[in-house]
């Protein structure tokens, strides 16, 4: 599954940007730094910059939208 997600990652992020009207600046700041790490027990692990505020904001603002986008594309 991880390989499939890696193949579709750019498509997932772009879908999210367009579908949810995310600005170019927000997209570059909050979504482009994300990297897929692993997929275990039906859970996707994503690497984020080492910044607690970044992670908290990302979870609050984009986690649900990311989940939806992943489901829609895959």
Largest beta-sheet details: 2 strands, antiparallel
**Radius of gyration, in angstroms, nearest whole number:** 12 Å
For the record, give the distance between the C-alpha atoms at the N and C termini, rounded to a whole number: 10 Å
Beta strand count: 2
Range of helix content: 55-70%
The helix/strand class is alpha+beta
Q: Strands across the major sheet, in which order?
A: 1-2
**Tertiary shape:** globular
Kindly report the average pLDDT value: 94
- How big a fraction of the residues is strand? 5-15%
Order of helices and strands: HHEEH
Low-confidence sequence ranges? none
Q: How many alpha or pi helices?
A: 3
Description:
The structure is a single chain. Strands 1-2 form a two-stranded antiparallel sheet. The longest helix has 22 residues. It starts with a helix and ends with a helix. The protein is built from three helices and two strands. Strand 1 and strand 2 form a beta hairpin. The protein is α+β, with helices and mostly antiparallel strands and 74 residues long. 65% of the residues lie in helices and 15% in strands. 8% of the residues are buried.
């Amino acid at each position: 599954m991880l390989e499939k997600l890696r193949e579709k990652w750019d498509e997932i992020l772009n879908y999210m940007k367009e579908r949810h009207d995310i600005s170019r600046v927000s997209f570059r700041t909050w979504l482009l730094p994300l990297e897929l790490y692993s997929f275990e027990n039906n859970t996707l692990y994503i690497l984020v910059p080492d910044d607690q505020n970044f992670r908290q904001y990302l979870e609050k603002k984009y986690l649900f939208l990311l989940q939806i986008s992943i489901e829609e594309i895959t």
